[in-house]
Amino acid sequence: MKRYIFRNGMVLDAPKGFAKKDFAVLDNGKITFKNIPDRGAIEIDISGSYVIPSLFDLHTHIRCPGQEYKEDFEHVTRAAVAGGFTELCSMPNTKPVADNEAIIDYIILEGERYGRCRIHPFGSLTVGLQGEKLARMGLMKNKGAVGVTDDGMCIQDTSLMMKAMEYAHTFGLFIMDHAEDNYLKKGGFLNEGLVADKLGLKGIPEISETIIIKRDIEISRYLNIPVHITHVSSKRGAELIMNAKKEGVKITFDITPHHLSFNEEACLGFNTNFKINPPLRTEKDRKFLIGLVREGKVDCLATDHAPHAKFEKEYPFDGAPFGVSNLDTALSLLYETLTIKEKIPFEKWVGLFGNAPRKLLKMQEKALKENAVANFAVFDKNLEWKVTEKTLYSKGKNTPLLGRKLKGKVSFTFYEGARVYPFGEK
Ligand SMILES: [Zn+2]
Q1: Please, are residues 195 and 268 in contact by the beta-carbon 8 Å criterion?
Q2: What would the mean pLDDT of 321-328 be, rounded to a whole number?
Q3: How far is the CA of 60 from the centre of ligand 1 (A)?
């Protein structure tokens, strides 16, 4: 392993903020601020860059096994580290579904093979995501599953959801829910409202999200079991969670970069890369969610990276699949939205993509301190880059940012002591 010296970077020392410091990564993969070697190291000037603990994504659709034409381990791990992430939580809607210990084992082993980042699999709550029979949660936990969810296929039967939560809780599994009433959502393609009317497409009402959030709050309160609501999209949904928290309900939630950066009007041009589930809501919703980030009230951020093949997104709006490819661009897009436009200091929110989800999952936090194993990313806030099919490492090129310039980009990522980005000779 080579030694590296990074000079003049702004290093995050949470909760204090950024401080200008030089540091080195030694042969043993550990960070030092005190014993910077005077020779035998690659020296890099990173003035104008932030150094942050490497990022953690709570919600990634890795698509494998089974849908490697959309995404595979090689591409998803490259996209992750190019975006500053060294840990990903994989969603269980693979083919076959991650509802048993063999698939969990496969995902962990395959993920490790590339040595770039760690994949923490989520198993499903029910067999085949069918919402009928509970999955083998204990066996999945033994193989390394960290949480359970029927993401995208929210359990509609409240009694089954209660049983699933009780069962998952006995194994200490993190329970995540994609809050959506299938009957209310049925046949919808984007947020219900003026834009949907203008386009002549059926809308997805906000109540399809909020009614399940409300249900989950009541279940969580009744059973005294924690639940996490992923990708909250509406003001009303977030308000329900805030109020429940005040009452002591053990509920947490995350928001995605796209719900913070765009609103329903983005769909006016029928660009299928804005077709996302839950849908982009109104500007009022978006502004409210940004306000929660500003006030430090969000538990964490999550990408909901949902890669699709190009031909799938070339269908008309009503025929294309939901989802946006996100890992490559998440940090740069949020830097633009939250820090450049909304003037929320970087140090106020970047941890929501790092140690905040680690804490939720009761995992060890990563710190930039003397003798810590190097797990960090360098974010060059002045580096301008253009999002193109070529500059994205994910196999999924389905991002509405295609052709756009972004300011700010990850320039280095270290994982367990080794440089994993940029790629190539170490
Ligand atoms: Zn989802």
Answers
A1: yes
A2: 95
A3: 10
pLDDT for res 140: 98
Which of 104, 116, 108, 109 minimizes the C-alpha distance to 75?
A: 116
Q: How far is the CA of 63 from the centre of ligand 1 (A)?
A: 14
Alpha-carbon distance of 315 to 418, in angstroms, equals 42
* Dist. CA 151–CA 97, nearest whole Å: 11
For residue 229, the CA-to-ligand 1 centroid distance in Å is: 10
CATH number of 55-360: 3.20.20.140
Whether residue 16 is predicted with pLDDT greater than 90 in this model: the reply is no
Indicate the residue type of 77. Answer: T
Residue ranges of domains in the chain: 4-50+370-421, 55-360
Report how far residue 177's alpha carbon sits from residue 310's, in angstroms, rounded to the nearest whole number: 28
Q: How far, in Å, CA of 354 to CA of 358, rounded?
A: 7
Picking from 425, 412, 334, 426, the residue whose alpha carbon sits closest to that of residue 82 is 412
**325 phi and psi angles, rounded to 5 deg:** -80, 130
AA identity, residue 20: K
The residues that are catalytic are: 304
Q: What's the 179 CA to ligand 1 centre distance in angstroms?
A: 8
Tokens of 129: 């995501």
Handedness of CA 89, 91, 95, 97 (dihedral sign): positive
* Burial environment of residue 189 by CB neighbours within 10 A (0 to 12, 13 to 18, 19 or more): buried
Sorted by sequence, the CB contacts under 8 Å of residue 319 that are 6+ apart come out as: none
Which residue would you say has higher pLDDT here, 14 or 380?
A: 380
Distance (Å) of CA 4 to CA 244, 282, 386:
47, 46, 28
Grouping H, G, I as helix, E, B as strand and the rest as coil, residue 233 is coil
Residues 6+ apart with CB under 8 A from 246: none
In the predicted model, what is the mean pLDDT of the chain? 96
pLDDT digits (tens, 9 = 90+) for 49-80: 999 999 999 999 999 999 999 999 999 999 99
Sequence-distant (≥ 6) Cβ neighbours of residue 230 within 8 angstroms: 58, 59, 149, 151, 176, 177, 178, 253, 254, 302, 304
- 366 and 54 Cβ atoms separated by less than 8 Å: yes
Considering the segment(s) 4-50+370-421 as one domain, its CATH architecture is: Roll (2.30)
Q: Do the bridges between strand 376-386 and strand 49-53 make them parallel or antiparallel, or are there none, so unpaired?
A: antiparallel
| CB contact set of 200 (below 8 Å; sequence gap of 6+) | none
